[in-house]
Amino acid sequence: MTTKIKEPSFLDALLPILVLITLLSSSVILFGDDSSYGPNQIALFIAAAVAVVIGLKNGFRWRDIEQAMIKGISLSLGAVLILLAVGALIGTWLLAGTVPTLIYYGMQLLSPSWFYAASCILCGIVAMSIGSSWTTAATIGVALIGVAAGLGLSPAITAGAIISGAYFGDKISPLSETTNLAPAVAGAELFAHIRHMLWTTVPSILLALVLFIIIGLNSSATADSVHIDLISSTLQQHFAISFWTLIPLFVLLAMAIKKVPAFPTVFIGALLGGVWALLFQRELMQNLMEQDLGATIGSFKLVWATLFDGFAVETGSDDLNSLLSGGGMSSMLNTVWLIFAAMMFGAVIEKIGLLRKFVQSILKAAHSTGSLITSTIATCIATNILTADQYMAIVMPGRMYKEEYERRGLAPVNLSRTLEDGGTITSPLIPWNTCGAYMHGVLNVNPLDYFIYAFFNLINPVLAVIYAYCGIKILKLTPPDSVQQELHLKS
Fold it and tell me: How far apart, in whole angstroms, are the C-alpha atoms of residue 327 and residue 329?
């Protein structure tokens, strides 16, 4: 006999979220910066358990809920593979001298006063060229964090600048997955979608740059020329610094521009870093390898160990040791744990219909175009928080609101732009979201620390809401579009 499934009440939908918010807040209070290293994962497991109980109460079978969990986790496996490859890449690029070389030249070329704005612009250009905020953060971003440490600048503000630039470039790049996904879900044309996004993205990035310039001009960098010279000489002492050590970076960027999939691109970059270490860092490797194994086997073992366990160097300075050490696939395992826990929770609440219940309640109150777009952005943000995945934060609200936009005579580009303004942009601001967890793992800066400095990501959704209520660049369906949409709804 089949059990009838009950529609969840608003209290059903609210309870797991209240439990999650309470536990996550308690996690931050009790564990501080260590909250992402276990406490947040337990909070997500407990909130998922509450949602499971509600689902069972409403008639769902455990087998169906379990299958939804497995499917939800499986959706993150692509991101997990990239994350593990990035860990390997950071390790071998440290060993190969690629990251130290970027830090060395960055300290020579970037002025502390303009550093934050320059970091934002540089990441924006790279992300726009390759269509990936993740690859940008894992390469240029890691080096800029190192440069900031060398110049005595704030890693949190630097991370905010990196993420602001990376997500701006990613958002307007036709090579980006999310930039293609949003118009596909909304029924808009790609380049019409990008043109429509410029109205919110360009003013947002300009405002962000102004803020980064103001902060930079008023910042008091602790590094003087003597300190910079000391770091530079230490880098030269332990690594062979040259243009040739940057070749792995150029190869990786070329593969990304050619649209080679992210996982093989990053993993090839990691392996290339290992080869480059063998070619250009022989003296360093001689000092680090196990001497009793011989040069060939010792070097091979060192590169192998770096791929899974990262790189560590002893410079005589704890700060420099921290700056020049890290990476390895094992360094990403905690982040993988966080992603699995978050995706499990998101899968449960989607399966038992709790998020849909929220949207239905919201639509009843969304009478104007301004309130509809605001509701869409709020739903995207909520989906990012609850399902922990930016793709879900585009696809789910897109499916839920598409018919309502059509019914109100709004062009599809309004929805596609709003999905990006609310979904793509806010994902790295949430610590347990796949994007927030990734940025934490790569940049080693907690999203709760860089949140307030990710100016582009904060300004863009607010500007989108202002545009919506003021009627700025809100496009209506043209007559041919209206006929097409009517036929679509009837079919």
Answer: 7
**Whose structure tokens read 């869409």?**
376
User: Tens of pLDDT along 195-229?
Assistant: 999 999 999 999 999 999 999 988 766 555 667 77
User: Identity (one letter) of the amino acid at 397?
Assistant: P
Cα 41 to Cα 432: distance, rounded to the nearest angstrom: 8
Distance CA 390, CA 377 (A): 13
Tokens 């596909």 found at: 184
Cα separation, 142 vs 248, in Å, equals 14
Domain ranges of the chain: 76-336+355-491
Q: Over the Cα atoms of the chain, what is R_g?
A: 24
Burial class from Cβ neighbours inside 10 Å (0-12, 13-18, 19+) for residue 240 reads middle
**Is 297:119 a contact under the CB 8 Å cutoff?**
no
From residue 196, give the alpha-carbon distance in Å to each of 97, 208, 415, 421, 463.
Answer: 42, 20, 10, 11, 14
Asked if 251 contacts 272 with a C-beta cutoff of 8 angstroms, the reply is yes
Task: Give the whole-angstrom CA distance, residue 293 versus residue 276.
Answer: 21
> Tens digits of per-residue pLDDT, 100-137?
998 888 888 888 889 999 999 999 999 998 888 998 99
Q: Where are the beta strands (DSSP E) in 331-432?
A: none
Put simply, whether the predicted model's pTM sits higher than 0.90 gets the answer: no
Tell me how far apart the alpha carbons of residues 265 and 263 are, in angstroms, rounded to a whole number. Answer: 5
Q: What tokens does 265 get?
A: 């691109």
